Amino acid sequence: MGLFDALRVSASGLAAERLRLDVIAGNLANANSTSGPDGQPFRKRMVVLQEAPAESGAVSGGVRVAAIADDPSPPRRVYDPSHPDADEQGYVTLPNVNPVGEMVDMIGASRAYEANVTAMKAAKDMALRTLDLLR
Amino acid sequence: MEIFGVTDILLGRALGGAELRQRVIAGNIANVNTPGFRRSDVPFQQSLRDALASGDPARVGAARPQVVQDATTALRADGNNVDVDAEMARLAETQLLHGAVAGLLRDRIAMLRYVINEGRR
Question: Is residue B13 domain-resident?
Fold first, then answer.
């Protein structure tokens, strides 16, 4: 029962935190992208996490990704008339990505990933100890 | 005389309780970045202690670990009250308790096997 569920719960945490790292990497890579496939400047993306419902009983089933949403905050506007993507007034619309904020989120996601690894290792060691009782 | 006495039943319950607690702590850690998430815990040692005090194997066997949501600790701005450091401490505690109980249970089983073999090794 419990310990294999604990492995699954930790695995859901690992998947969620790695997705956050992927999305943060995408935000950082596009911090200066003034136009995307749709011609619009890049918008910062955010991972929306949600507690996963338990399969049975009142215990949590881990975490799941509810959505990857665009940050609604306004883009930055910089005066740079020589830029190819500048508008008639000479302003360039830059993504609403704050690289420093992304770095902070990245460290948080990386630490949370490590915590999930530790929890998973503990569950594995405990399962092996319980299986040792059969020997 | 029963082959499995109150001690064995207690150890089995404690092992199951530690496994459930591990799962709940893993859930807390997995949800460390989930807005609005409230951490849970399994305070099963108290219910086991009460059942053990009665000395009744049936009561010990019936003692079930409960999952309790913790609404008392301070919340972060996003409504989440998971403290990773505290969860890691609880994780280590649960792992050590599980190891101790598993060790005791293994010794009990070894002793039982010794008796069944009439002392032959």
Answer: yes
